[in-house]
Amino acid sequence: MDRYAVIGHPVKHSRSPRIHALFAAQTGQRLDYDRLESTPEAFNQTVLAFAASGARGCNITVPFKFEAWQMAARRTARAELAQSANTLRFDAGGWWADNTDGIGLVRDITQNAGVALAGQRVLLIGAGGAAAGSLGPLIDTQPAEIVVANRSVAKAEALVARHQDGAVTQAQRAQGVRMYATDLDHAGEAFDVVINATASSLGGAESPVAASVLKPGALALDMMYGAAAAGFLAWAETHGAHGRDGLGMLVEQAAEAFTAWRGVRPDTGPVLAQLRTEL
Ligand code: NDP
Question: What 3-state class would DSSP assign to 16?
Answer without folding.
Answer: helix
